[in-house]
Each structure stands twice: as structure tokens, then as C-alpha cells.
Amino acid sequence: MKKTWWKEAVVYQVYWRSFYDTDGDGYGDLEGVIRKLDYIKELGADVVWLNPCYGSPDVDNGYDISDYRSIMPKAGTMDDFERLLQEVHARGMKLIMDLVVNHTSDQHPWFVESRSSKDNPYRDYYIWRKEANNWRSYFTPSTWEYDETTGEYYFHSFATEQPDLNWENPKVREEIFDMMRFWLDKGIDGFRMDVINLLAKQAGFPDAEHPDVISYLGNNPGIHDYLQEMHEKVLKHYDVFTVGEIPFVTPEDGLLYVGEDRGELNTLFHFEVCDYMAHWDMARFKEIQKRWYEGMWGRGWNSQFLNNHDHTRLVTRFGNDTTFRTESATCFATLLHTLPGMPYVYQGEEIGMTGVRFDTIDDYNDIAMKNKYKEETGKGRDPQEVFESLLHLARDNSRTPMHWDDSSMAGFTGGTPWIKVNPNYKEINVAAALADPNSVFYYYKKLIQLRKEHEVMVYGSYEPVLEDHPQLYAYFRTLGTEKWLIVLNISEQSVSFELPESAASVSRETVITNYPDDHAGGSGALTMRPFEAVIYRF
Ligand code: TEU
What we know:
Keywords: Glycosidase, Hydrolase. This protein is of the alpha/beta class and about 550 residues long.
């Protein structure tokens, strides 16, 4: 298998608006990211992924861009950005930016022109039709919005304020490629590509038989031509790393995007876990990992993540964020850093931050949640019931400010934060984590360090054992003579089991464990405590 720097890397995702505020406006900023780079470096991350910080009316927290070549004033200035890039590089790390090119903001000058008249030169930068079809968008009941000025509908996969670009138009492609060069020429190290498999649309927009299953939005004919053109004209001329956000994808389709012989992207995020597994489901999770490993290993590279700015924090969603918060945080960390693929750490995950539960819909900010609330209550449903039903997967769960210390506003801002701070910041914060050698933080740090010392964690083959076990997830990673066994008890109950035959008879040493004492000396029979994780080396 071809070795590359990015396969060996760990990515730290910075949701800058909630990271660290240095000017007291209640939003984190790029200067704040600069001041906390030593913290990210201390953790051991290799790459920083910065969520969108471009000019934007901020309807969808920066994913609605009105100026691709500027920095949003809330985040800072272009000068701040350039200093950030320099400071990241000075610490031997890399910086990747979010590339959001499926859609723009409706305030983008291209769209302002496009909607102004049918014969405007920018009309074909977007998708206009005389009639709507029955498709749903991610955030609204229809993908089509009627525009009175010209009496036609425009297409949007997300909010009405996020019209989709028309990638069929070569001028659009050239504009985007040129914009990508603008950032790459500044020296950034790659892109996280927002819903990149949505660029191509179904010819003729036929009605869907099941409009609620919105997979018609992605993987349409033409998508690979666009991505190959992007690679040919832009990406291949730089030493960069790309990760595509690719919903509705199977491993077979996934290979078409990241196959090493394809000339498209390097890696992908698929959403079989985060979009479709609301609660932990052991059998399903094992099946997903196995299928993706068999489908891609040796030919294309995967990613591992259990939360990000769109998905409820992992301890709250999949673990236990009260009694076993530390245990479940470190157990899932072991999982993420030992499964095949690049691990992503979302800010705050490394100190075991939890999801929030605010009292009213007014405390929430996310457009996806607010739109859904409006849509459902509009049908006459009980508002409280709708509210409750949205809490578990609300995107704001993971968007609350980072907890730096136990001072007012968790040390995030001297002003009023744009979204409320999670009240548990006095107990869970960076200062406390750094002062405690047994904290979640130091466990992540150890795992990341191990990855740098042991190639088996990156390039080792994956072989699951105890496959039908409902509580235990166990697998070997093997590279040459190096053989590791990872055993995770993903449950709140203790469980006893026998090591597999091939492992019981060989002497073993413990590489890492998330309980203070381990059972390395014992025989083949082991008892694993709630959310206990252990890695053995043979
Ligand atoms: O998200 C795409 C997206 O909507 C899903 O992949 C995601 O799983 C979903 O939001 C869960 O509810 C990207 C960005 O990450 C998101 O923040 C943006 O709102 C969206 O694109 C539109 O740009």
C-alpha cells in the first residue's frame, strides 16, 4: 500500500465561531485559533480543518457564502488568516479549509445578478425551472423556491438562502477552480469538500417515488467528470490533501471518489453512522466497518469520526455522558484511533465535552432545527413534543462554546456568546483536563502519539473477532510481525470472555488501556468493565 503523510495524520476540526473569542463580540475568531494553536499541537494533531470563514450572511453558520475570497468580519481579516496559516506551518502542522461549492448564499453577487432577469449573463450560474418537482431539500419541504422577479423557481439542496450552483455551466466551474487556486496559492494544504457529491443533478428533475428519501440529491451522472476536471485543472498541481463529504454512498461508489487510480479525491466521510444510526447499534456498526474495509482497503482511504459540528457529541449520542463519561469518551477514542482510516477529533471531544439540552427552541440557533420545528408545528403537532423530538440530534448539541476553564462563559469570551455555554463547563474544561494526568485529553494525546510510533495503527490489516458479541467489539490490526488486538466493551455492564485461541496462547503486553489497572498478566479469560478499552500487542 502506498504510504502518504495524510494517511498517517490526525485531523483536529476547529469550529472557529465556538473556539476562542479574542475581541469580545461573542464569536470565536481566527486570532483565537492562533492563540490556541499550542494547545492543538500539544494534543498532537497534524492537520487543522477550519470550518468556513468566508464572507457570508451566516444563515447556515458560514455554509452560505457571499464572497469566496474574503474573510467574514466575525472571524477577522485576511491578514489574520495569513498569520494563522503561517503559525500553523511554523508548528509543523497543516491547514485545510472548507470548500463549499454546491451552493452559494442568495446574497452572492452571482445570484443577485442571476435572479434579476432571464437574460442576465449570470442566469445560468444557477438552476432555474418553470415548474417545481416533488423533491425535498435537506432543510425545507421543497428544493424549489419561486422567485417573483422572473416567475421561475430556483433549486436549493439546503435552505432557500442557499441556491445551488449550476455545475453544467463551464463558466461556473472555471470560477470555482480559479477561487480554489486563490487559496491554494496562499499555501493552504487542502480542502474538506462540503457535500461534494451533490454537484451533479439528475437530468430533467423527475419526480421521486419516495420524496422523503433525499438520496436523489447525490451521486448523479456527471459528478465524476466534474471531480476529475477539478483534479486535472487544480488539485494535481499542488501537494494537498482532500476529504470529500459524501452522503448516500456505498463502499463501491466511495471507491469511485477516492480510488487511488481515479484522480479525484484522497479520502471521504460517509454517513452510514452519523446520519443513520441515532443510537449505538453494535451489530450495525460492526457490519458497516467490515463492509467498508472489504470494499476499500488497499484501494482507497476512509475516515473515522463519530461527531462534528453537525452531529451530537459522541459521549451523549453513543456513550454515557454522566456515570461513564470519561470511560465512554476514552473507549470511543480508542475505537476511532484504531479502526482503519484517518481519525478526526472535533474540538472539545478531546476533553469529553457533552451535548446540550436547552429549555426552549429560542435557545437554539441552527437553521436546520428551526426550519424543522416550524414545518412540524405548522402541521398542527404539539410544539413541546416536536421540540423534544428534535433534541437528541440537534446540530447545536456540538456547537456550543469550547470550555477553556471554569471562569465565566467557560473562558470562551468576555462578551455574550452567540450561543449559550453548556452549564457543565465548571466540571468539564481544558484547564481541569490539563491538570489531571488521567483525563480524556491525555488519553487522546497518548493514542495520537502511539499512531506516530506504530505504523500498524495506520497500515495494519483489520480482522474482526467475537463478531456476534453484543457488548464487545474486538479486532486485530496486523502489519508484518506486528500484531495488535483491540478489545472494547461498548456497554455499561461488565462482561467476561475468553481471548480468541490465536491470542490466548501467546504472551502479550498492554499498549494502552483506559482503566488505571489492566489485566495484562492474566490468562485467556478476561473481564472487561463498563466502556473498558484495551490494546494488546503480541
Ligand atoms: O452538511 C451536509 C449535511 O447536511 C449532512 O451531511 C449532515 O449529516 C446533516 O447536516 C445532518 O443533519 C454540510 C455541512 O457540514 C453543514 O454544516 C451544512 O449546513 C451543509 O453541508 C450545507 O452546506
